[in-house]
Specification:
mainly alpha; Rna Polymerase Sigma Factor, Chain: A; Arc Repressor Mutant, subunit A; 2 domains; 72% helix; 0% strand
Length: 174
């Protein structure tokens, strides 16, 4: 029989793992996305064990704030490692509409989008990815310590910067 903590954890996992995986997969390859999801839920489990009465007001916001931090830590780690080139492994998987806005399934297009995302400042990348994951300006503001209007304004600027970077990388990928 499962304890209340185990039931709570299982419910949270089943509810949020798919969207957290998509968030990580937008930034990294499938293997890294799986690893980061596992790390995130392991941290949550350990936190739950240590703080038995921990219940945030909004699980989704709390988990995605933790995911943003984990993603940023992983990017810092990757930047410290020697650079390698890796093609997306599974060509038969359905294309992510964010990575491929025109519906193309070209690995080159995916690489251009990822390069454009990585070329952005961390704050711009976070705004774009969190908006893409369906968070409201108010929710993003709480996660990033900004007002909702600041999120909307900065998101518009971040999208413009992303579009410029994407055009730049798309021309070099042709």
């Amino acid at each position: 029989m499962m304890t209340n903590n185990e039931q709570l954890f299982e419910g949270i996992y089943l509810s949020f793992q798919p969207s957290l995986y998509r968030y990580f997969a937008t930034c990294f390859n499938d293997n890294d996305a799986e690893d980061l999801c596992q790390k995130l839920f392991m941290k949550l489990w350990l936190y739950q064990v240590q703080n038995l009465h921990f219940v945030p007001n909004n699980w989704r916001a709390w988990l995605f704030r933790a995911a943003v931090n984990l993603k940023n830590d992983h990017i810092r780690l990757l930047k410290s490692l020697p650079q390698t080139f890796e093609l997306i492994e599974n060509e038969d998987s359905p294309a992510d509409p964010f990575l491929l806005p025109d519906g193309s399934d070209s690995q080159i297009d995916q690489l251009c989008v990822r390069q454009a995302l990585y070329a952005l400042k961390e704050r711009d990348r976070d705004l774009i990815l969190l908006k893409y994951m369906g968070f409201s300006s108010g929710e993003i503001g709480k996660m990033l310590d900004l007002s909702a209007s600041a999120v909307r304004s900065r998101s518009a600027t971040a999208r413009e910067r992303f579009a410029k970077q994407l055009n730049r990388f798309a021309q070099s990928c042709e």
